[in-house]
Specification:
The protein is an alpha/beta fold and 519 residues long. It has 21 helices and 14 strands.
């Protein structure tokens, strides 16, 4: 018979684990389930305690191969001596140990290392003791024979939770150290850092500024920041949504009118330009302005005067124009629905806001910001920010947020209301976001392996959100390929509705989203 250790080495060189047994007289069995070599899990610092040398070695081999750091001891007394001066992520301990047993170590660890996850390994007959240990603070337990896949899955889940906690803690720290004046444009990504710098550069100017970006990216927020950092900060900031008024009323709203200028004009009104005199006028959704109003706006920008409806009197105004749109104004100019001369007037300076899905690294700090913002004081007067479960955090990370930061804010508010003061789980998130949660081991796979599979390259470690998106996109392609492009069958295979599949195909802009005849 091949020596067990040499057998494991041979199997690793072959690229897969096989079934390996180890133990004393066959009493202990250690089952290593077939698992692709590249499916590496995350990395944690583990204290492994077991008095059976072969089982301890087998466990250590598997965990090290998955990238974890292992410290091995053979008895409870030696483990207890390490606790005060060491900071392990996980303690993996047998229940029956010489010196101090596993339950005694658990109680000690709760005092010496309260942040460390404690997992017990137990024989099936001792499960009752393990369940009782959960009530004393154990994170989980594993029954012998130990299943390698279950072990690695558990370690990955623990690391996912700890990673989430680290990200949210860092986000909390970043929020607390950010000066109040900058607290409104949240994010530490390269894109947001550049945008804050650009705002500081263009704010002192009086030049017309155009802000472009998808709905929900914070265009009005940026407009207000430009105003607040400008010499006009003490003067009015007036915002008007150009899409909110009928074509017949938008001119009256902007330029004002005299009494009797039209039916219903029972009294004089100055209009938004005069209300913003000396300050900033924010024209949101400027692409929706009808052509007649565009012509009058161009005249105001050229002459600095407005003519209220019902009079030919020109009134001088001193207003800085900041405009915003989620449309492509150049395309509108080419189509003849937006004046070219007005486009160049409003686009002297520009700010382009990225969608949330492209702001890598900003999601944790935004989640923490909204969690803090929507937290309410309970009946006892305590204010405690809700926590997120690992699955809920993974779903938020995987979702693409077509509504951007605004949609994220609404989703967190929705979850906080439903969760009350408890932990936010998948059930508390909006359905569309909950459905985006990756399932099973997908969450725990090494992101570089996911990117490698999806893109066909070797890949590098990437943020979880990107890895999850790439995996889901590739998985949709594989499901459609397996069903010959039949979306009804693919939806059934994936366990989602046909509508959900269609929305995901459109979201990922897959070629398969185009309508095809269904068999």
């Amino acid at each position: 018979m091949i020596h067990r250790r040499r057998e494991r080495q041979w199997l690793r060189r072959a690229g897969r684990y096989g079934t390996v047994t180890a133990g004393l007289g066959g009493a202990l069995q250690f089952l290593l389930v077939l698992r692709p070599r590249h499916t590496r899990i995350s990395r944690v610092d583990i204290l492994l305690i077991d008095d059976e040398p072969e089982l301890r070695q087998a466990l250590s081999d598997v965990l090290k191969d998955a990238g974890h750091t292992i410290t091995e001891v053979s008895d409870g007394q030696a483990a207890a001596a390490l606790l005060p001066d060491s900071s392990f992520d996980v303690i993996l301990s047998d229940v029956r140990l010489p010196g101090k047993d596993g339950l005694t170590l658990l109680r000690l660890a709760r005092k010496e290392a309260p942040l460390t996850d404690f997992i017990l390994m137990t024989a099936f007959a001792e499960v009752g003791e393990a369940v009782a240990a959960l009530k004393e603070g154990a994170s989980d337990y594993l029954t012998k024979p130990i299943d390698a896949d279950e072990l690695l899955h558990l370690m990955g889940r623990i690391d996912g939770t700890r990673s989430m906690q680290r990200e949210l803690t860092e986000a909390r720290r970043a929020l607390s150290t950010r000066p109040a004046a900058h607290n409104r444009l949240i994010g530490n990504s390269v894109q947001m850092t550049k945008i804050r710098s650009r705002i500081e550069m263009i704010a002192p100017s009086d030049a017309a500024t155009l802000i472009v970006g998808e709905s929900g990216t914070g265009k009005e927020l940026v407009a207000r920041m430009i105003h607040e950092r400008s010499p006009r900060a003490s003067k009015p900031f007036v915002a008007v949504n150009c899409a909110a008024f009928p074509d017949t009323l938008i001119e009256a709203e902007l330029f004002g009118f005299e009494r009797g200028a039209f039916t219903g004009a029972v009294k004089k009104r100055d209009g938004r330009f005069r209300a913003a005199d000396g300050g900033t006028l924010f024209l949101d959704e400027i692409a929706e302005l009808p052509l007649p109003a565009q012509a009058k706006l161009l005249r105001v920008l050229q002459d600095g005067t407005v003519e209220p409806l019902g009079t030919d009197q020109a009134i001088k105004v001193d207003v800085r124009i900041v405009s915003a749109t989620h449309r492509n104004l150049r395309d509108h100019v080419a189509q003849g629905i937006f004046r070219e001369d007005l486009f160049y007037r409003v686009n002297v300076l520009d700010v382009s806001l990225p969608p949330l899905r492209d702001r890598e690294g900003d999601l944790p700090i935004l989640i923490e910001f909204f969690l803090q913002g929507f937290t309410k004081t309970d009946a006892a007067g305590n204010r405690q920010t809700p926590t997120l479960s690992t699955d809920a955090y993974a779903a938020l990370s995987a979702y693409r947020f077509p509504g951007n930061v605004r949609e994220l804010g609404h989703a967190i508010e929705h979850a906080v209301v439903l969760a009350g003061h408890g932990e936010i789980t998948l059930d508390h998130l909006p359905a569309a976001i909950a459905e985006a949660a990756p399932s099973g081991p997908t969450l725990l796979a090494d992101p570089s392996a996911v990117v490698s599979d999806a893109r066909g390259g070797t890949g590098a470690v990437v943020p979880l959100a990107m890895a999850a998106r790439e995996f889901e996109k590739g998985h949709l392609r594989r499901a459609l390929a397996a069903t010959g492009g039949k979306r009804v069958k693919a939806a059934e295979m994936l366990g989602i509705s046909r509508k959900s599949l269609w929305e995901k195909l459109r979201m990922y802009e897959l070629e398969e989203a185009r309508p095809k005849p269904e068999a």
